[in-house]
Design a protein that fits this description.
This protein is mostly helical and 132 residues long. The protein has a domain of 90 residues. A hairpin with a 2-residue loop joins strand 4 and strand 5.
Length: 132
Amino acid sequence: MLVIWRGYGFMVPVVFIFFVIVLKLLEENLFGPAFKPYFHYGMAAVAVCSAATVWFVGRHYNGAAPRELVDPKTGQTVLLRQKHSLFFIPMEYWAIALVALAVVFARDTHFGERAAQPGAQPDVHASGSAAG
């Protein structure tokens, strides 16, 4: 897979993975097996923490004042701005996608629970009605 970034844009997935590792360590060392049914809420918290971190770091780096350089031959002023993006999307806007991911995790109340229960039947909805 090809990952395209500019500046510190590569930090978006690194921040998310960091918070996932923190959640996993907390689950194993602090909460134990009682946390399993609530793991999706933990993942929602991971996504929110990642979103906040990415937003503030992205705003800090992309909002920095540009460097002014003067060409000695022409006397022309050039502004240099360093951009930080992942897949051509500015770093701070990835926070929106991470918040959307948090909503998905928070709403998914059966995050793998049904498949883990022995003898569980999948939900089947009829697409029509029987004429009698």
